[in-house]
Write a structure and sequence with these properties.
GO terms for molecular function: pyridoxal phosphate binding. Pyridoxal 5'-phosphate (PLP)-binding protein, which is involved in PLP homeostasis. This is Pyridoxal phosphate homeostasis protein. Its cofactor is pyridoxal 5'-phosphate. The protein is an alpha/beta fold and about 220 residues long. It has a single domain, classed as Alanine racemase (TIM Barrel). Helices cover about 40% and strands about 20% of the residues. The chain has an eight-stranded parallel beta sheet with strand order 7-6-5-4-3-2-1-8. Bound molecules: pyridoxal-5'-phosphate. The site of pyridoxal-5'-phosphate (PLP) has 13 residues, from strand 8 and helix 9.
Length: about 220
């Protein structure tokens, strides 16, 4: 990607933070984007993420986020290893992660992943479930809930996702009222390459861009 294209994408993301979604992309492409000024990268698969972290640890102040579904049996591996884990999608997962963080004596920043459209195929808390489990989530003392994340239903146009982004923003505002300082609830991670402009209009503080930065992903893992 040309420096000039990179700069204009970064600019179009303001005031949100732009994450470069580097899943399945080779380390060389990460180095290239880093050299253009990008610092925050997001990965989906735990093993791939940890390998890249290790291989690229020479890139000072690089920041890693985890955005893919996290299995409970991998929680130990990721505890304390990411600037932010976006994909905490059940109370059980939050509890397991909290326990590993307590053992390592670290506090892990997380987002709660919301299934805004109640899709059967999707991970995440439904709005109803989250309201019910909220008091219990607040007691997890080695996690810091920074906000909410969603992947809305795949639609043809950005306009159709707008109501889902609005809902996520309202839910964040509602829950923030009862959150203690340990759980700032400021962030809204929403918007990918094809709908990030709409997401930003609806209050996204973090957008997750893959294809628009790196081109199509290689399909083989
Ligand atoms: C892959 C992925 C993205 C990036 O999607 P693009 O369409 O390539 O921008 C964002 N968020 C999540 C959770 C992803 O898995």
């Amino acid at each position: 990607m040309l420096q000039q294209d990179y700069n204009s994408i970064v600019k179009s993301c303001a005031p949100a933070q732009m994450l470069a979604v580097s899943k399945l992309q080779p380390e060389e492409k990460i180095r290239l984007l880093y050299s253009q000024g990008q610092r925050a990268f997001a990965e989906n698969y735990v093993q791939e993420a940890l390998t890249k972290q290790k291989n690229l640890e020479g890139l000072s102040d690089i920041q890693w986020h985890l955005i893919g579904h996290l299995q409970k049996n991998k929680a130990k591996l990721v505890a304390g290893q990411f600037a932010l884990i976006h994909s905490i999608d059940s109370l059980e997962l939050a509890q397991v992660l909290n326990r590993h963080c307590a053992q390592k004596n670290v506090t892990q920043n997380i987002l709660l992943q919301i299934n805004v459209a109640n899709e059967d195929s999707k991970e995440g808390f439904t709005l109803t479930a989250l309201r019910r489990l909220w008091p219990e989530l607040l007691t997890l003392s080695n996690l810091s809930i920074q906000g909410l994340m969603t992947m809305p239903p795949l639609t043809e146009t950005g306009a159709e996702v707008r109501p889902y982004f609005k809902q996520l923003c309202q839910l964040r505002d509602e829950l923030k009222k009862t959150a203690p300082p340990q759980h700032p609830m400021k962030e809204l991670s929403m918007g990918t390459s094809h709908d990030y402009r709409v997401a930003i209009e609806e209050g996204a503080t973090i957008v997750r861009l893959g294809t628009i930065l790196f081109g199509e992903r290689p399909t083989a893992r």
